[in-house]
């Protein structure tokens, strides 16, 4: 039996974030759906409410300290103290090193890594007070290195280091911290990659599927299922781990 909690999911307007928000709501949690634009987040929140769940849409830049503080305070006021947080917000600014600008580097590190730090720091006070909490950070197989993604790979590797450190710091307060590292997942972000590389999207999906042992690309719901496990009561003795959701052993 799931104990209803308040969950905050960042980058939840679409893709993995939206699927995760819907899954946590289906598991019985109240969900704060956060994205950089509240209007975009509202679509996910509305879908949750239409399905009988409870959801609040918020607009905030996760790299903005004041915006994060205000958003978490609003969640606590309107839904209750958030004790589950999924740090999913992210952007792509892919390029080879010699073409990558400092702004492209800073933007990616700020949203992924600074954002996860700021949101986790703001939420931990509620988790510590409750003596219970779940933090799930979204990493990626790109953390192991990926051509044209020096900024993204560095950010996603950083998410793993952040995960393991917060697991040590927050564990004594009943808070577990884990990471999910997806492989190729069919999302709007991947559609943008296809457009950038000039490859038809269906061809990109087909080529990617050939490299996956299970012979298909992942769906946002595949990742949401892994996140949901880490957020569950059943995962209370699992912390500081990185779970690769990539369709095979070669992450």
From TrEMBL:
Domain Ketoreductase: from-to ranges: 5-183
Coiled coil: none
Superkingdom, natural source: Bacteria
Database matches in Pfam families: adh_short_C2
Family the UniProt entry places it in: Belongs to the short-chain dehydrogenases/reductases (SDR) family.
Protein's UniProt name: 3-oxoacyl-ACP reductase
Lineage: Bacteria, Bacillati, Actinomycetota, Actinomycetes, Micrococcales
């Amino acid at each position: 039996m799931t104990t209803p909690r308040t969950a905050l999911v960042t980058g939840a307007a679409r893709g993995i974030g939206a699927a995760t928000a819907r899954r946590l709501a289906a598991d019985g949690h109240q969900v704060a759906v956060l994205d950089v634009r509240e209007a975009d987040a509202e679509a996910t929140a509305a879908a949750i409410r239409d399905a009988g769940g409870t959801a609040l849409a918020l607009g905030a830049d996760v790299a903005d300290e004041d915006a994060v503080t205000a958003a978490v305070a609003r969640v606590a006021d309107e839904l209750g103290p958030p004790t589950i947080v999924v740090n999913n917000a992210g952007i792509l600014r892919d390029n080879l090193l010699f073409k990558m600008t400092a702004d492209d580097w800073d933007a990616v590190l700020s949203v992924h890594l600074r954002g996860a730090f700021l949101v986790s720091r703001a939420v931990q006070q509620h988790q510590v007070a409750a003596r219970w909490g779940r933090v799930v950070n979204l990493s990626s197989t790109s953390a192991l290195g990926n051509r044209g993604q020096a900024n993204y790979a560095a950010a996603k590797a950083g998410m793993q280091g952040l995960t393991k450190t917060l697991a040590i710091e927050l564990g004594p307060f009943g808070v577990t911290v884990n990471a999910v590292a997806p492989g190729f997942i069919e999302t709007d972000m991947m559609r943008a990659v296809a457009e950038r590389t000039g490859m038809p999207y269906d061809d990109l999906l087909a080529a990617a599927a050939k490299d996956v042992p299970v012979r298909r690309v992942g769906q946002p719901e595949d990742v949401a299922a892994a996140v949901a496990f880490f957020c569950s009561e059943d995962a209370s003795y699992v912390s500081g781990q990185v779970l690769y959701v990539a369709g095979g052993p070669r992450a």
